[in-house]
Structure to design on (329 residues):
């Protein structure tokens, strides 16, 4: 487990600029220590989230660290979370939950011990986490499903690449299913891409080589599969397939510009991490009298249930603008 614990430290030193949350840097002290527990910290999505965490830590002048496994590994994430709670004396924790069922007891135990826990990116709604900050993943799925239906003219067979146990991806799939429910588009296979990116690459090759399997489109519910699928389609000159991806790493944007990916649904991991740390800081300095409660059912809750950071569609019409802005970061 220790080899999976990679730390990116962010120690702030700039004046506070905070979204009118009423925070003051003068109230902070050296004992404050915030954590973001991510999934697969090697992928560009989480590097962008770290940029948001780093910016917030500098604005607040607090210490914050992003930790997590180097690959998608829910069990390793659980062990990292447990180690933080057990040995690091965290002020508060922000976590993107890989497996809500696996993490439920650990999140609830941290809350019971007085450690505020907020989920971001991927939720664990059946825990006592204070709230979720991130994409409305159902609406993101609806957005992707509508553009897919448009490109396929409302009919055809598709393959979905996903992590089946991850809550945010389950919500995206539900959104796709709703958007496609009144079309002639059918999901003929759902592929678990838990593991190396080569899984999506190899599976796409297998599908294209199987004459009995007629597939017209590919839906990628997470960040890594889209570029792998696009690579295979380009190598095999399969220009009649539609790919809808997720997120905006440089390779995905490149494939949109080349025409191999029709569109991608963009999220705001920078905003999630930035606002998430600001919220945790505010909670720490104005802690509710009781953390261990079901905030969703509390009509006088002092925290929201969900903060939606928004999503948008990137295709050929706007990809060059997005690409340029990403290069300027």
């Amino acid at each position: 487990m220790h080899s999976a614990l990679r730390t990116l430290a962010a120690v702030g030193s700039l004046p506070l600029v905070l979204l009118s949350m009423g925070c003051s840097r003068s109230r902070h002290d050296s004992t404050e220590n915030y954590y973001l527990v991510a999934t697969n910290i090697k992928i560009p999505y989480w590097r962008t989230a770290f940029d948001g965490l780093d910016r917030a830590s500098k604005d607040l002048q607090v210490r914050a660290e992003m930790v997590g496994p180097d690959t998608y590994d829910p069990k390793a994430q659980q062990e990292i979370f447990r180690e933080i709670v057990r040995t690091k004396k965290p002020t508060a924790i922000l976590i993107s939950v890989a497996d809500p069922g696996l993490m439920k007891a650990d999140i609830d135990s941290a809350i019971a011990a007085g450690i505020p826990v907020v989920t971001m990116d991927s939720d664990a709604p059946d825990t006592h986490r204070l709230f979720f900050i991130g994409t409305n993943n159902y609406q993101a799925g609806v957005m992707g499903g509508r553009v897919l239906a448009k490109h396929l003219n409302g009919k055809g067979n598709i393959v979905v690449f996903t992590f089946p146990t991850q809550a945010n991806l389950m919500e995206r799939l539900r959104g796709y299913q709703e958007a496609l429910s009144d079309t002639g588009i059918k999901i003929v296979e759902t592929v678990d891409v838990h593991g190396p990116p080569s899984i999506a690459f190899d599976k796409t090759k297998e599908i294209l080589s199987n004459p009995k399997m007629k597939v017209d489109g590919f839906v990628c519910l997470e960040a890594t599969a889209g570029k792998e699928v696009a690579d295979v389609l380009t190598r095999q000159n399969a220009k009649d397939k539609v790919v809808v991806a997720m997120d905006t790493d440089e390779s995905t944007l490149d494939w949109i510009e080349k025409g191999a990916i029709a569109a991608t649904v963009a999220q705001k991991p920078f905003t999630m991490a930035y606002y998430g740390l600001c919220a945790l800081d505010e909670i720490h300095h104005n802690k509710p009298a009781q953390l261990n409660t079901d905030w969703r059912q509390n009509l006088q809750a002092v925290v929201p249930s969900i903060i939606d950071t928004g999503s948008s569609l990137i295709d050929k019409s706007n990809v060059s603008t997005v690409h340029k802005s990403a290069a300027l970061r």
Remarks:
- The chain is about 40% helix and 20% strand.
- Residues 1-7, 9-24 have pLDDT under 50 and may be disordered.
- The chain has two domains: 2-135+268-293, 137-266+314-327.
